[in-house]
Amino acid sequence: MPRFLRAFADLIDQKDTLPVNRYEGFQGNGAVVLRDRRGTAKAQIPNVSEKANGGTLSDDPLAIYKPTGAKHVDAAKAMGNFTGWTFAAVNAIASEVANIQLRLYRVAGEDHAELDDHPLLTLLEGVNDQMTGIELKYVTMAHLELTGNCYWFLDGVKSDTDKPRAIYPLNPGRMRIKLDKSQFPYRLSHYEYTFDGKVYRFEPYQILQIKYPDPGDPFVGIGVPQTIPTWIDSDNYAMEYNRKFFINGAQVGLYLQTETNVEGNIDRIRKSWANRHEGTENAHKVPVFPKGVELKHTGVTHKDMDFGKLAEATRDRILAGFRVSKTILGTAESDTNRATAETADYVFSKRTIKPKMLLVISFLNEFLVPRYGDDLYLTFIDPTPEDKAARMNEMSQASGGIPVMTQNEARQTYLGLGPVDGGDKLMVPTSMTAAGVTSTPEGEDVTPQLAKTAEGWKAKAIRVRTGGKTAHSAAARMRRALTESFKKQLDHVPAFQVKHVTDLTHGEYMEHWKRFNARSERAVVDLHAVFRGINKKQREQVLENLPEATGVEKAIGELFDLKEWIGITIDLATPILTNLSRDEATAALAMIGAKHQDILADESTQQALDRGISKMARSYNETTLDQLKTVLGEELNKPEGTSLAKLTDAVDGVYSFADERRAGLIAKTESYRAANWANREAWKQSGVVQSLKWYTAEDERVCPDCAALDNTVVGIEDKFFTDSYSDGEIPPLHPDCRCYIRPETISIDEV
Question: Which residue in 40, 86, 345, 521 has a CA-CA distance of 20 to 30 Å to 79?
């Protein structure tokens, strides 16, 4: 790791411990060579082994403490205990955290915009020359679990505000924290890192320390092995005892008794036994002893030790310390089914992984992210799986067991199937009525939520315009129902229960825009996939129909059947935009408290949506054909002639541009258009929304033209602008526009 070692060399030079000034490289044996200004090798930093010598019980890396002794476990010993059940638990936690994806957001007013490309994300993914982001997350959690501390060396920083060139996690067992005790409370002075017998000093701004809090020490964290040492030692000793059972004759407590009192005879007998009968390879051999020698047993058998229960007890204690279940480790298959496995995953993610990630992210947001700006913060994708059973039970209880989605919604959400005729109606038992309603006049179409907003509407004192609609129109029927209902309930609605949708501030209404944006973006993804699929198949057909390079130009308009591809586009796009329109209309009516209705049940409304989809499909395919005519015409009319390969390249260029730019742009523009159209149509059919206001996200992505329209109010039947790009009644103002509309005036009066 060149940068890291260069930093070490610089530190050595600063302290004058060695006259070196640059890193040279590795020798064949792995040692690091540092050379002075004359190029003479002056020092070596060999690899340092953390392994215990010989691997005997006396060299056990933990061998912690006596129950009555001092209860401090050195970090180096804790690091050496990355074995057995400790390894299994730490590996499970670190592996889970390593797969969690980090997210970076920038705060702009009330908007939180995610950043996909940023130097901080690049650093956390690239880390250093020899480490990946996944490896950094794994090592970080392993250090935290074992010692309660993780130290990141921030390479290249010279102050608290510098951005690091790289990150290097340092071994916590070699790090010491030095305090400034000249005043109270004590403060962190510096860090000291020991490597090959040499001590290197790091300033606080060079080290990012992440720690598990220790109630007894605000400066140094504490790891799990340091809090449950006796449990780990019990397991270590039991495993060692079992190992010795196989090494020493595969027996427990044997001894030889002899009548001889000659020391030489005793040694000879002992060596003979060791050579012929100790070890697993000599197990069950028949021994032959000299006269006067007998084989005796202590009386305690291996069975008497009950190692099975002992091993289970110590295992369960250790795993409890790490909060990792046997199911997570895959050691409980006999009593595990899918339900218990999913429960184990849920508990592990929620109570073990998520709290640890929140702690780590808090350190990064406090000590690393501010180096890149005060308007940034890191977060992560919640690893907790959805508790589907609890959610379904809660939904069932809340809804009284009646259906909460239509058949088509269920088919699309859970089965990926298309809609069926009649599947867009929400089916409910005919015997059910609204709770708390003693009588409901025939034809009344109102929800309690809408009734509660009546006080706010009445205070507006704005009369409803009939707009020339007949008494039998859907809007007229809704107005009659609303008016009758409000007359009965206005006097019983406390004022504090009402906050009218038109009274929401821009920031409060942002929640509606976020949901609108999320629904629209889901449709964008689906529609984008449709366009890319069309591009692929259409390109294949065009290449089959390409004219040969003979100088005779084939009619370019016959490269693909325009009407056929318009029909294909309509067929594929209609279900996506229809479902989006229905979802948006439902949300729009719920926003003002109106009862759900299918706005597409009206034939004229469905026809309006179909016309918009047809216009989009025709425009998309005609644009593709025009581009093909242009590039192929230029190629075919070149004086030097052309070739089939060049014509193929020209076609590929058209469809590559369509994939990379046009497909995504049209998908987003048309999805947002359909969503805004559905909102306006739903509010229009409600008969109570009288005017609309143009609404923008008010972030750095809002263009000047849209910003100029922000807060513009027009009547429900009027236009915001006049432009050839669209009809002007709703956003988008331009391709890739994200603008929204909101109801401005809502009123109820006699029809």
Answer: 345
